[in-house]
Design a protein that fits this description.
Blueprint (H helix, E strand, L loop, with lengths): L14 E3 L5 E3 L3 H22 L3 H21 L18 H15 L7 E2 L4 H24 L6 H24 L5 E2 L6
Antiparallel strand pairs: 1-2, 3-4
Helix pairs in contact: 1-2, 1-4, 3-5, 4-5
């Protein structure tokens, strides 16, 4: 798709168009859902720029591509417009994330306790991505309570946050950076 013009002036009054042409408020639950997914993709772009692990970088870019499918899905009012093909996740993406989670967990030592986000800059960024992903998931759930969404979208975002958690652990482990385990300071 060639972009010929960046601004249209169509959103100057606080409205935007969905897939199919319906005009909605930029404050709608639907816009909040796919806007948060877009924010996640931007944070993933920063993470991809920071890490040196080519395998994980490739997965992150693959995820960013899939998040475009998720945004298209969320930007389509399925009660008024048929989903375009670009609104569906490619086959096997949830299973790919699950497989990667399992591979990473197999490499890591078993730890007990809750992990405080942090460690290396790259791991901290992975945790930021994880928390934005969880917020995107909450926004998608809110949208699903008032509109039809494809269940696979919610499953994918849920699994993605799990991947980002174990990725942060892997980044710290590979950097010999000890994770900080939560301690109840009130005891």
């Amino acid at each position: 798709m060639k972009i010929t013009k960046v601004y249209t002036r169509g959103g100057d009054m606080g409205k935007t168009s969905l897939v199919g042409g319906q005009r909605v408020s930029k404050a709608s639950v639907r816009l909040e859902a796919y806007g948060t997914v877009d924010e996640l993709s931007s944070n993933l772009g920063l993470l991809a720029a920071m890490i040196t692990d080519d395998v994980e970088k490739e997965i992150i870019i693959r995820v960013q591509n899939c998040l475009f499918n998720v945004c298209t899905n969320l930007a389509t009012d399925q009660e008024q417009t048929d989903l375009p093909q670009s609104a569906y996740l490619p086959e096997g993406e949830i299973e790919m994330l699950e497989g990667r989670i399992d591979e990473i967990m197999h490499l890591l030592p078993e730890r007990q306790g809750f992990v405080l986000p942090g460690g290396t800059k790259e791991a901290a960024q992975a945790h930021i991505c994880r928390t934005v992903c969880r917020r995107a998931e909450r926004r998608i759930v809110a949208l699903s309570e008032v509109a039809q969404i494809t269940p696979q979208v919610l499953q994918y975002v849920n699994r993605l946050s799990d991947y980002l958690f174990v990725l942060a652990k892997k980044i710290n482990f590979n950097a010999n950076q000890s994770e900080i385990i939560w301690q109840n300071v009130g005891r």
